[in-house]
Design goal:
389 residues, alpha+beta, 5-stranded mixed beta sheet, 8 helices, 15% helix, elongated
Length: 389
């Protein structure tokens, strides 16, 4: 498989014990104004910029831990003296480093990213973003051109000045220097020479399997039954979803269950690191719903793409009553005419009684991430088998 570069966006967390910079005698709006000049459209260098007096404050109101990256604004990259000592030469390639006046602390520094890429750096037709007034205000996934992005480490987009992007090369520089990484979310694998998904012939269809035989169980005792039904029907629930407390059950009676990145649930569910790794791919086909399990974040993946492609004439199905959806399909057959560009999808509820999630061979390699554990699937159908029926 052709290698393609990953791109990450700086996405500071709102962890309750996190320490963040505040301006003396200023509130959050004041800090917003302090760093406003760091998000110019053309990557201007700061002139005679002078840091106001600042201090570190804990979001949750207590605690005194050291904070390596103490800023919540995604367009300004603030880091401590240790990152500056190890990484200043590399970071200065992508912008201007200025010192901050933080009281009672060793020096903190800010990177004003002046490396700006234009709209040609990404393909809008293969990206998932929300625009307002011609500017990107929200990103699910971006499809970058590695010919334009490949030689960059840290950059901003002219069409999204409120975000800082790091390529995997930049991430490796941090790792080689022995530095911890800031909060990042993967948003893209760059365009490479592989054909677009819509150009790839659909040769196989797989089922995304979620089984207690292979993974620990995700329990959400307070889940709203109506929300669960909406998810089973492939309806969006993100606007009414409130992050819920869940539990990862690693034992059922005497039986020990394996904790993996993909716990057993009635629909796809995954760990935070799996969501970050697969997010650019999955975001095209559904929505992520957060669940907190003992301090760890997990995500339910609600697949919204519905394809009416079950070939009922060629499939072997079992029904309780003639007009009801089948409760079991012993032999699967699909209508190839409706599979063009298919990646991850579900069938209409009238096609099958028990909701299942399917994906095509075109995205199999992208789903199989070597660092993730517990992703299970089974082949249901291949074009070769159907032609030879």
């Amino acid at each position: 498989m052709h290698h393609s570069m990953s791109v990450f966006v700086l996405e500071p967390s709102d962890r309750f014990d996190r320490r963040v910079l505040q301006a003396v005698d200023e509130d959050d709006d004041g800090m917003f104004d302090v760093f406003e000049s760091f998000r110019s459209f053309d990557g201007e260098r700061l002139g005679a910029w002078k840091s106001p007096k600042m201090y570190l404050s804990t979001i949750g109101g207590s605690g005194g831990r050291h904070e390596t990256y103490p800023v919540r604004f995604p367009w300004v990259f603030v880091f401590d003296h240790e990152i500056h000592r190890r990484m200043a030469k590399y970071l200065s390639r992508w912008g201007q480093i200025v010192r901050l006046n933080v009281q009672g602390e060793k020096a903190y520094w800010a990177l004003n990213v002046t490396n700006i890429l234009n709209e040609k750096a990404y393909d809008p037709s293969r990206s998932s973003v929300r625009l307002e007034g011609g500017l990107i205000v929200e990103v699910q996934s971006l499809c970058f051109d590695d010919r334009l992005v490949g030689k960059n480490g840290i950059f901003r987009l002219a069409s999204m000045p409120t975000a800082i992007f790091l390529t995997e090369d930049a991430v490796h520089e941090f790792e080689r220097a022995g530095c911890s990484l800031p909060d990042l979310r993967q948003v893209s694998r760059c365009l490479d020479s592989s054909p677009a998904l819509s150009d790839r012939p659909i040769a196989e269809i797989y089922e995304w399997v979620s089984s207690i035989e292979t993974a620990a169980l995700l329990l959400i005792p307070d889940a709203d039954p109506s929300v669960r039904l909406s998810i089973q029907n492939g309806e969006s629930v993100v606007d009414k979803w409130n992050p819920l407390e869940g539990e990862i059950l690693e034992r059922e009676g005497r039986r020990k269950l394996k904790k993996t990145d993909f716990p057993c649930f009635f629909c796809p569910a995954m760990s935070e690191r799996a969501a970050k790794a697969l997010g650019p791919l999955l975001a095209k086909y559904g929505e992520f719903l957060p669940v907190v399990c003992g301090g760890e974040k997990y995500f339910i993946f609600n697949v919204l793409e519905v394809r009416d492609v079950l070939d009922e004439n060629e499939s072997v199905m079992r029904r309780l009553r003639p007009n009801e959806p089948p409760y079991r399909i012993d032999k699967w057959a699909f209508k190839t005419a409706g599979l063009g560009g298919a990646g991850i999808f579900r069938l209409p509820r009238r096609s099958i009684m028990v909701p299942q999630i399917f994906f095509t061979g075109a995205v199999l390699d992208d789903l199989l991430q070597p660092e993730l554990t517990g992703f299970t699937y089974q082949l249901l159908w291949s074009a070769e088998q159907q032609l030879g029926r």
